[in-house]
Amino acid sequence: MDRKTPLKSDSNQEDRSFADSSLFSHWGQDLNSETRRVALKMFQYYGYNGYLSERLPMDRAIPDYRPEGCKNMSYPTNLPQVSIVFIFVNEALSVILRSIHSAINKTPSHLLKEIILVDDNSSSGSQVTAALTFS
Known about the structure:
This protein is an alpha+beta fold and 135 residues long. The chain folds into two domains: 11-55, no CATH class; 75-135, no CATH class. It contains six helices and two strands, in the order ααααβαβα. A two-stranded parallel sheet has the order 1-2. β1 (82-88), α5 (93-106) and β2 form a beta-alpha-beta unit. Mean pLDDT is 79; it is low at 1-18.
């Protein structure tokens, strides 16, 4: 985890608040104290369970939530190509990568023209910014 947010704390405040954290209400009770600390810091940084996000597979089954009427429609094959734009700020790399995988896997290849990633001023320690920096 390469961020500007410190992971070390001199107080036991995080350990005391850990049991009440929504992060661990349904999972994570079996994590050791160091892993809990990292997971809680990621939760505080991202606002969601970044620790668990890093452990989800890139290619996973996603339910089809479209209304039944849309599922049964047939579409022309000669539709125009699309550009998909992902805008992010200080997003976990795992979330961006899973989104890209989903877009590629769920979009017919002849329709997908490009995927554009827009970093909306992430901090310099952002995982995504570091991973996508080209030389």
